[in-house]
């Protein structure tokens, strides 16, 4: 018998207000966006200042829409295109689950470019500031994945393996916690440390590139413990869709960092 930890009996619904369920997943998004907004205000005003407080406030609406719409469309296109093309009305059923970080990232990139052009801001400098606060949302999002018992890991014999309700009888890696600690906490600490340097803040694209490299590396590592999506499995050999989608991030991040390093 493998050692294991029983999955905590946590309802995905935090509160029930009449007929309206308030889910932990929604609260995670709210917490990530709210804390990210406060942090963006601070780093946006740090020298060399990029964002006025009003700009930071306005951008968070754009960011919220980008995360939700991009994340949902990314999941539809990257993970279940055949299903959603056959059932287009289900595309809007976000309460059924299904969000893609990589789709949300594309949505965020579009919103950064559009907002920066509208407000006549530096696109890369805005991207740098947003990159510094993005791990906050990732941390809360992965914790919500754990509470929902979704995106669990592969079978393990380690003593901290968890038997998830939908994961069969064998203990599995709590890969959501791994990702929360790597993509969320560790990456946030890295970005926070680097963003304290005014010379690095003054190099457009350096912080954004570091975030892209860091996320791609941590996601690729965590995918070694995460169970591939059942409808996809391994794409090529032992490579998952998450790892494939992280490769362009890694390459783009390297380009940004190298370009910023040449900046006077």
Description:
Helix content is 61%, strand content 5%. The protein contains 9 helices and 4 strands. The protein has helices spanning 24-45, 53-78, 81-86, 101-119, 123-147, 175-195, 198-201, 206-222, 241-261; strands at 5-6, 13-17, 20-23, 162-163. The N and C termini lie far apart (61 Å). A two-stranded parallel ribbon has the order 1-4. Helix 1 (24-45) packs antiparallel against helix 5 (123-147). With 264 residues, it is mostly helical. The model has no long low-confidence stretch (mean pLDDT 89). A hairpin with a 2-residue loop joins strand 2 and strand 3 (20-23). The protein has one domain (15-261).
Largest sheet data: 2 strands, parallel
SSE class? mainly alpha
Q: Which blocks of ≥5 consecutive residues have pLDDT under 50?
A: none
**If you average the pLDDT, what whole number results?**
89
Strand order of the largest sheet: 1-4
Domain module count = 1
Distance between the termini: 61 Å
N to C succession of SSEs: EEEHHHHHEHHHH
Number of helices: 9
Q: Which bin fits the share of residues in helices?
A: 55-70%
Strand portion, in percent? under 5%
Give the total of beta strands: 4
Overall 3D shape: globular
**Radius of gyration over alpha carbons?**
19 Å
